[in-house]
Amino acid sequence: MMRLRLALALVLRVAGASYYDNASLSKHLDDVVPTFPRLPDAGLRKRSPFVVVATQRTGSKWIMKTLRRQTCDVDAESELFTDNHGWDQYNHREAIKAIFDQSLPLPAADGRHVVAQRFINRTRREDGLGPVAYGFKWMLNQGMAEQWPWFLRLCAARRVKLVFLHRRDYLRMAISTKNLKNTALEAHPETEADLEAIRHSLVHLATGQDLLEELGKYAAKFALMDAYRSDASRAGVETYRLVYEDIAADHTMFHDVRDFLVKDLDLARSACRPERLMPLDNSTDVVIHSNRPSAYVANWRAVEATLRGSRYQHLLGEDELRRRRT
């Protein structure tokens, strides 16, 4: 019951409610959460942990894959907690403790947790590894609200960096989500045929108040991220706010992200040098919906009419607004 109240408190906090009570929350956590030994605040290290906080349809897989494959000192795993059936609160906690406090024993092996187990094993190998930043992607809907207060304490103690991945274009998120449901394909198409099937599939979006409420739900997710980031900053946790549209337009931002993740590493002991980084190349992951939103929406006129004059009118884009004025 207390865990449910904690999750509800965080959601209400984004809506401006006053239920979120830091004092009582801290008291409860002191009763149930062990105290983690704090790492020194200064000094270079051989391992620097991080977590990318994201939600669906924000380009997170592309970002993690680029960091993992095209840098030599960042080990960026994708989602560890995809199987919600296998990840209860206890297993979440034990896996996270083992990842970020490497003095702790590994959690019991479980076939449903094979990706996390493999990642933990990899981060503990010493032979042949130089200094490395290591981390994974954690989606908002994968039990984060229930673990957040406890997890924040661990981040502060173990110097875990947090990257919050945002997206500005809620309309494209809605198109992508609806398209995925309609085509019954994987979230990330592996073949050219699947990619073309998604690109040529028109969707019918909700209109009127229903569409505005749907877009509002996307906005609320990113507002929750902002609340989490504020919590982290107050706790002394280093954070980075990354926006998909910015890094998609300027791939050199990957170097900025990498610099943030590795800045605590003892790079003098590393054979990895910036000039040895592979060129950033987006050839293996492409933007699916690269055209104007109107090219993918069957009932575009109704959608456009809904957005014009609303707080989401900017999502139409200058091209659409200019085209309708001329």
Automatic annotation (TrEMBL):
Transmembrane segments: none
Alphabetized InterPro entries for the sequence: Nod_factor_sulfotransferase, P-loop_NTPase
Signal peptide: 1-17
Entry keyword annotation includes Signal: yes
UniProtKB keywords: Signal
UniProt keyword Glycoprotein present: no
Protein name (record): Sulfotransferase domain-containing protein
Native organism: Aureococcus anophagefferens (Harmful bloom alga)
